[in-house]
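Co-fold these.
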Amino acid sequence: MDMERDHLIVLLVILVTLLMEINSQSATTVAVPSTSLAFGSNATSNNANTSFLPTTTEPFILVQDPTQTPLDAQANIPENIDLAVCVCDLTQDVCDVNCCCDENCSPSDRVVFLSCDDEYLTKETNTDLCSYDIRVYGNNNVMLKAVKNSYIFCISNDRNPSRKYYASVAVARNQSEFESYLASSQSNRFSYQYKPTVLEPTNETNYYKRGQFLITLSNNRVSTLDIPTSVAATSSCVKMNPAKFLISEEDSCTRNLVAPLEVVCTTSADLNSEKLRQNLQNVKVKMRPGSNTNLAVNVSVVDVDVKGDTQFPTYSPQLGLCIGIVKEVAYTVTHEAGVIMGVEANIVITDLPGTLTAVEQKYSVQYVEAGDSSIPYRRSGNPGYLVGEPVIAGKRVGDYIRLNGDRQQYLSMVVASADGDCLTDSLNRQSIVFGEGFRSGCTLRLTKDNLGDQCSNQFGDQCSSLNAYVIQSLLGPSRALDTTEPIYIAMFGNSLPSKVGDWIELEIVSNEISEQTVGVSLHLDIIYVNVGSLANPQAMIVAAKLYLEPISMSFSCVGPYCHRQNIDKTQNFEVVSSVAFIDNSLPAEAAIAEKPVAKSKLKADFFKPYYVASSSSQFFLSHVILCFIFISYLIG
Amino acid sequence: MVLRSYGLASQTEVQRLWWLSLLPYQIVLYLNGFYTLFYTICELLMFIYKGETLPYAPSSLGVEIVILLLTSFVEILRLFFGKKGNLTERPLLVGVSLGLSLPAVLGNVFLLIWQTYLLRAELILIIVQLSFIGVEMLLGFIAIILFSRATPY
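Predicted complex below.
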C-alpha cells in the first residue's frame, strides 16, 4: 500500500507541475502591461528617443553631416530597420506643423498642432509578433507603447526579422553592376534598344541577302543607306528606314518646315540639293557585307524645270521661287549575285514658291541586275490574271498585238486632280488593273481655243470637235483607247502578243454621237470567269465592252461667252469614266449524295419463336397481341 | 502488500513478493503517447500555416519539418522502451528510454529556440512536451535504481 501511495503522490506532483507550467505560460500570454515613453521637447527626452529608437537618428545624421559623402551614407543603411520614423519632417531645422515626431518642434510649437500627421504616414511593422512596441500619437507627442498580442498563432520567437525589410543593396558604380541590377530586376521594361544585327559584318556574310540592310561607310562610320518614308498619321518624312537589299521602295513624304521656304531655302539640309549631293558623295557602300571594298555613290543632279543658273539652291525674290529644291531622290543599286556593283543617286530638283511651309519629296530605291539593261516583259498573271496587275491591251498589227512599252498605260482612264480638273496628260492617268473597278469624275475646262480652228471661227455653232476633244480626254492622248482601231485584250495574263487567237476584241458601244451630242461618260465592262481547279482559280477575260454615253450638250454661246474678247473664258463639262469587273464564273455543280438506306443486319430468324421469315406475318401479330393482353393483365 | 500469483509466470517470478514497476511512470508514458500524436499533428498543421503565411529561406522549412518528424519518431521509440522496460522491470530498456530522451529534448529545444518562427501555440505545445520528458526522465531514473537494486547480480 505504501508503494501505491507513493506512486499516487508522484503522479500528483507531476500533474501539479504540469498545470503550473501551463498556468505560467498562459499568464505570460494574458498579461498585457503597457508602458509609455514621452519624448520630444527637452534634452533628456531627446536622449530617451535616441536610446529607445537608436536607429532613428542615423538617417538624420547622414543627411545633416556634411562631412560624410553620399557613398558612405548608402553603405551605412542599417539592415532590418524601419527607416520611416518621421516622414512628415520635411523642412530641415524648422518645425513642421502637425508633425509630432519633428525634433525641431518646441512645446510652444506643439500647442498649435491640431493632430499628428505621423500616424497617417507610418505603419507598424511588427504586428504579427506576440509582443511589440507601437508608436502612439497623443498629446502632440509620440510615445512607444508595448503591446501584447493575444492571438494564439502570433510569432513568439522570430528568427527571420529581415522578412519585413528590403534587402539592403549597394549602389551600382560601374557598368557590370548596372547590368546585374538590370538582369535581376523583375519589372518589365520597354525595349528601347535598336538591334544593329546587320551593322556588324562578319566573314560569313559575304553576300547580301534579300532584306538585308545596305551597309555604308560615311566618314568612316558604319551606317545604312536611309530611304526616308512617310509616317502613316502625319506623312512627314522619317529617316529611320534603311534600304533593304532587293526590296524596292518608293514613297512620298512631306518635309514640314520651321519657316516658310523663302527663309529656309538655302539652309535646310533636307531641301538643299548641293548639300545632299556633297553628303552622298561622301557615302561609300560596301560591296559585300563582310568585305572592305567600298563603292562610291554616283550622284547626279537632274533638273526638270528649274529656272535660274547653276548656283543651287537659291531664293529668287523677283520670281518668288526657291530654286533647286530637292524634289526626288532615286537610288538605283546595281547588283550581281548578292554583290553590289554600283549605286547611283539621282537627285531631281525643282523650283517651289517661297510661301510654302511644307515640301513633298519622293524617295525611292530600286535594284537592277548588272549587265541587264533591257526591261523584261512582265506578265499580268500566269496564266490567269492576278488582281492588281494591269489588263493587257494593244492594237493588232498584222499577226501580232503591239503593246505599249509602259505596262501601266495598256488601258487607262482619266482621273481628277485635287481641284477636280481632268488630268489629261498620259502620266497621270489611272491604269486599269485587273479586279479593281473604279469610277472617277472630273471636270473639263474648255475654252474656244481648245476646240481648234474649226470651232473658233464659228461662234455659237455646236462643235463636233468638242466631241473629239472630250473623247480624247477620256481615252487619253496616247489614244490607247482610240476607238478608231480595234483594241485587243489579252484573255490571260500570260497571253503572248504573237498568238492573236488568245486576244479578244474590245467591243465599243457608242450611241450615235451626233453633232448635238458629246460622249461624256465612258464605261468599261470586263467580264471574266475563273477556270481550272477550284483550289487555284485562274481568271480569264471572256468579254469586254466599252460604252460611250453621249448626252446633248453644247458650248453655250450666251452673253459674254460669245464675244471675241472673251475667247479664253472657260466652260466646265463634267465627264465620268468607270470600269467594272464582272465575275461570270460558272459555279461548281453541287452533287447531292444519295440518302443513306438503313440496312437491316438482323438475322432472318431473329424472332424465331414468334416470327420466322418464311412464316406469315399474321402469326407474328397474334403473338404480339397475346403479349399485350398478358402485360395489361399483369398491370391491371 | 498484496501477493499475487499467476500460473503462467516462471518459478522465480512466482516466488517474488512484490512488483517493482512504477505506476506513475506507466501512466505518464501512456498519456505522453496520446500527447505526442496530438503534438505532431498540431505542429505539422502549424508548419503548413507558417509555410503559407510567412517567408522562409530556401530549404529551411523542409529541414524544420524533418526535425519535427525525427523528434516524433524518437519520442515513439522512447515511450515504447520506457513502457516495456517499466513493465518488464529491466533497467537496460528504461536506460535506452532515458538515452533516447536526449535527442527528444534536443529536437524540442531546436523547435523551441532555433526554428525560424515560433508561434505561441507551438511554444505551449513544446513546453508541455518537454515537461512530459522531464517527468519521465525523473521517473525513469527512479525505476532504473529500483530495478537495479532488485536484480540479483
